Amino acid sequence: MMPSVSLLVLVVLALLVVYRVLRPSRLPPGPPGLPLLGNVLDIPLKGLFLKLDEWKRTNGGVFSLSAPGQKIVVLADAKSAADVLDKMSAPTSGRPRYIMMNEIMAGNLTITGIPANERWKRCRRIIHEGFNARASEGYAAIQEEESGRLCRYLLQNPGCDLYPALERTSCGVILRALYDAPSLFTSPTGEEKVQKLAEQMDAFMKAAMPLAYMVEMFPVLKYLPRWMAPFKAYGEDFFKDSNAYLENLYQEGCSTKQEGGKAKGFAVASEEARDHFGVTTQEAAWVSGVLYAAGSETSAAAVQSLCMAMLLYPEVQKKAKAEIDAVLGPHAPTLADRPNMPYMHAIVKETLRWRPPLPTGFPHLATENVDYGDYTIPKGTIVIGSIWSINHDAPTFGDPSVFRPERFLSSDGKTLSTPLSNYHDDDIAYGHGRRLCPGRYFANNMLFVEMTYLLWAFDILHAKDEYGRTIDPPNCQFVDRGLTCRPADFPCVFQPRQSTLADVLPPI
């Protein structure tokens, strides 16, 4: 009897093993991969958003990828992204674990990278206090002034490289808004701050790249002593230096004197609110640093995309000028003009749809099993809402590669419409669910003011080469930094629209 029982037990165990191996997965199907490696060799380090869109065409709007020890679900259409990341945001608002970038180099203080825990909740509250819709309007004067200074810079420096000028503007605006710092156009000392912050951003970007550090694949390496782990020594020293710099920058912002009706900088406002929400000085300092990183590069990328669109679609530029001239005449634009300028508002939305600065979105993490239709997304799965694919979905937008602001306007052209209104209540470029960008009101205001200012001041024209031939911008070439992406550099000409332009622009 005993051998028979033992044999029966072995048979049952074998059947269980076979079942676990052969049972159908409840993950959505996806592109085939290699044994053990899965799709890891197919996932590009650059242009991931284009690869995801390619896979969407062959695998549908919901598909899965695999890498050693990790499952990934891609939501590449508006409905699935809204269903999973918006409607079921509680279990899908986690973040993948970035051991080097977030835990070692940032002490678990990057609000964009930490889990949706209590620290994340209280830090989000002070961001909401400083950058909600009403509070963001208080920064309009800064945004208008810096946009005017950008135009003066372009007027005085014809032929300059476009993107650095746009980046100086976005960096300057966010520095002034956060820390009440001087304008980068008028104060050379600000360049040192920008350079230091840029170095920190570059280091974080490199650390976030897949396989940049072996500790991401073998987390136990994190617990090695410093002398055995050079990566750990570097990361801990980086955190110490960055923490001291960000806290000092924050204290400088808190010490600025507010005069008259001037809007408070975020540092001052958060210092008043942080005790109420239980936020430490260190946390507030890192929140400010992350806000700077999130806003500076993405805003510049969007305005660069606008300039490219004006070259590729001159009829759109012509319509924008007609609205600008009818509403503004010779007067410089302000944020208060936006309600009377639906076409310019639609241009901002179309720019973010056509060339989203974060085209793959920031990855989410399922913190528990999530059932969606016939599928189950297991706990621990990375969930990507592919913003590029959603924004370039032909059934939703029609001719999605074409820059056409009218898709965001009603039939009479006087009010805004939202093609994604059945799924999403805001621009999809700002993310999903509880991870929706908390600075989106400030960003939208900035984009409207800067884009309108440029089109009010200039005709944006093609540059010509030494033989007089028109230089076309590289429509489908990109500078890809992993999470963020912008068009490849291109020359263009900013031709003043009025002879007295220099008399009405802010000085630099």
Structure overview:
Pathway: Secondary metabolite biosynthesis. Heme binds at residue 437. Belongs to the cytochrome P450 family. Residues 1-24 form the signal peptide. This protein is 49% helix and 8% strand. The strands form 4 sheets. A 4-stranded mixed beta sheet has the order 1-2-6-3. Strands 4-5 form a two-stranded antiparallel ribbon. A two-stranded antiparallel sheet has the order 7-10. Helix 12 crosses helix 13 (314-327) and helix 12 (281-312) crosses helix 14 (342-354). The protein has 508 residues and is of the alpha+beta class. The chain has a single domain, classed as Orthogonal Bundle (Cytochrome p450).
Keywords:
508 residues, alpha+beta, Cytochrome p450, two-stranded antiparallel ribbon, 10 strands, 49% helix, disordered N terminus
Gross CATH architecture: Orthogonal Bundle
Calculate the terminal CA-CA distance, rounded to whole Å.
Answer: 96 Å
Helix content: 40-55%
According to DSSP, the number of beta strands is: 10
The 3D shape can be described as globular
How would you write the strand order of the largest sheet?
1-2-6-3
Structural class by SSE content: alpha+beta
Unreliable residue runs: 1-24
Number of helical segments?
Answer: 18
**What count of structural domains?**
1
Describe the main β-sheet briefly: 4 strands, mixed
Task: Look at the structure and give the mean pLDDT.
Answer: 90
Question: Which strand-content bin applies to the residues?
Answer: 5-15%
CATH domain fold name? Cytochrome p450
This entry's quaternary arrangement is: single chain
Order of helices and strands: HHEEHHHHHHHHHHHHEEEEHHHEEEEH
Question: What's the CATH H-level superfamily name?
Answer: Cytochrome P450
Please write the CATH class name.
Mainly Alpha
The Rg value, from CA coordinates, equals 25 Å
